[in-house]
Design a protein that fits this description.
Aminopeptidase, Alpha-Beta Plaits, 2 domains, six-stranded mixed β-sheet, 9 helices, elongated
Length: about 375
Amino acid sequence: MTVDELLKQLVDIDSVNPSLVPGAAGEREIADFVASWALQAGLAVEVLEGTPGRPSVIVRTTQGRPGRRLMLCGHLDTVGFGQSTDQSHVDGDRLFGRGSYDMKAGLAAALVACRDANVESLVGEVVVACVADEEYASLGVQEVLSVLSADAAIVCEPTESTVAVAHKGFVWTEIEVVGQAAHGSRPELGVDAIMRTGPVLIALDRLGIALRRREHPRLGPGTLHASLISGGREESTVPDRCVLTIERRTLPGESVADVERDIEELLASCRADDPSLVASQRTTLSREPFETADDNAIVAVLAEVSGAEITGVSYWADSAFISAAGIPTVLFGPSGDGAHADVEWVSIADTVRCAETLTATALRFCR
């Protein structure tokens, strides 16, 4: 089976993440398909399912001699269909369908590379971690890392065929401003929590401007934006509560503690201007940034084999978990467009080249 044939079959399997869309199909059918395909290809298979109904599949080479282990990683799940079709179709070099770009093309390339590297001359082992739940809580990669390590890893997210060695992290922070409810005809008896949030928003805007002055050579500046805001009960009641959620995209070297300190200092400044302000913060979710040095072995081999530019990517990926486990990690995948959008496509020719590059990289790195 060619990589484009495998890609089409993967895209035609509904694997929408049920944590994003209640009642969605999840990873069961696609995990069963991957396991069956791998066994027929002469590869070893292990299925992990620490969370019922959310399986991940580990695929391994079965030939060769002892040597380095290279992990290739791709996720099985997709976001919801939206206006996208659940069936793939081809137009010229483009294969359309939900998950084609993000990231079943990279997954197909990794599986084919594992199959094609499964030869007697292989010195080492190639493993493909086909993980669940990347689009929500990354349950799959965390479960895989609890039982599997490697000398290096390539996460096959779409990188437009560049070698990506860094991406940002993120921190979601909820800020609550507390007021006092009162009838709208007697506002002097209340404290308007929504109005009190105004200076906090202005201070956050200033912090966002300051963050943009800190540049990472491959990722650009850190950023901050207001994501959600809610408050109030009804039109004629002074609101007693306003909740604001912000997202900060962090650079390598920045931690959750750094973000929490910045927000606490910001709120303290607002309290200095308005001593009656009652406001608090809490971190609701965070993911670490990641970065691998250019001179690391996996970076050098992949860059030499591919002839590609070394870059960073704007999105977060499971690479952060793998890198945090002490495994040197890069990202490499085909070009396309439309991740999470209504129209999603991937280049077929790029997917073929990606599989060939991963195969050559695996054989050289393991040796």
